[in-house]
Structure to design on (239 residues):
């Protein structure tokens, strides 16, 4: 029996169709998946999120990504993923590679290895400076044991903590399980073809000046499938 998993996708009002394609790719491979766009304005309206607006934040979900355990009332398992990603398989398979007794599971990227191999840029496609910091990109895909986050990832803590403490997962007290990199495959950094969740962390084909990055054909396929599914849905509604 599959363990229930609630999936939260970071949503950014500036990225439009990118949000939709990420969610559509999940539903294509797992039609019954519970997927929720993590929209900052809704979280503010519900009073669970009240940090001052940070205009320097790279996305609108820079901090809200840590709210899924609270949104699940600290029950069961939840997952967060950025929106600049697509799935190539059933997302529930990620649980097979997690140590679900851990507080959190993630892909433990080691950027020092990327630098040694020359797979590292200094500027993202949106013009933002590419910073390297401890545990970079660990928090772009996270699987939470919600109950084990009850005493640490409270809304009060999330609303007040320094971003670096959240993203470096100091709150997890090193109780961090490791997932294979296929579940957060960084385009332009990983060079094999073992991917289940593809992440265009430096910018994807939705940018005008970056229409053909590695694996862009897979994103365009998902874009096409999204519009086809939407078209079919609208036709069925009219019948």
């Amino acid at each position: 029996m599959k363990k229930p998993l609630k999936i939260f996708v970071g949503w950014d009002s500036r990225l439009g169709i990118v949000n939709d394609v990420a969610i559509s790719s999940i539903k294509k491979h797992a039609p019954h998946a519970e997927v929720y766009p993590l929209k900052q304005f809704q979280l503010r309206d519900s009073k669970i999120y009240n940090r001052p607006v940070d205009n320097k934040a790279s996305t609108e979900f820079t901090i809200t990504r840590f709210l899924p355990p609270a949104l699940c009332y600290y029950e069961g398992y939840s997952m967060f993923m950025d929106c600049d990603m697509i799935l190539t398989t059933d997302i529930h398979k990620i649980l097979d590679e997690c140590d679900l007794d851990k507080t959190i599971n993630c892909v433990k990227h080691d950027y020092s290895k990327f630098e040694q191999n020359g797979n590292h840029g200094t500027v993202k496609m949106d013009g933002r400076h590419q910073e390297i910091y401890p545990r970079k990109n660990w928090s772009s895909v996270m699987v939470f044991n919600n109950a084990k986050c009850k005493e640490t990832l409270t809304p009060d803590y999330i609303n007040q903590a320094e971003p670096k403490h959240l993203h470096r997962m100091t709150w997890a007290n090193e109780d961090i399980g490791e997932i294979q990199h296929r579940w957060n495959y960084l385009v332009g950094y990983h060079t094999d073809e073992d991917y289940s969740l593809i992440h265009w962390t430096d910018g994807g084909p939705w940018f005008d000046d970056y229409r053909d990055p590695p694996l862009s054909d897979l994103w365009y396929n998902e874009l096409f499938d999204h519009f086809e599914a939407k078209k079919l849905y609208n036709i069925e509604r009219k019948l």
Remarks:
- The two ends are 36 Å apart (CA to CA).
- The chain has one domain: 5-238.
- The CA atoms of residues 56 and 128 lie 10 Å apart.
- The mean pLDDT is 91.
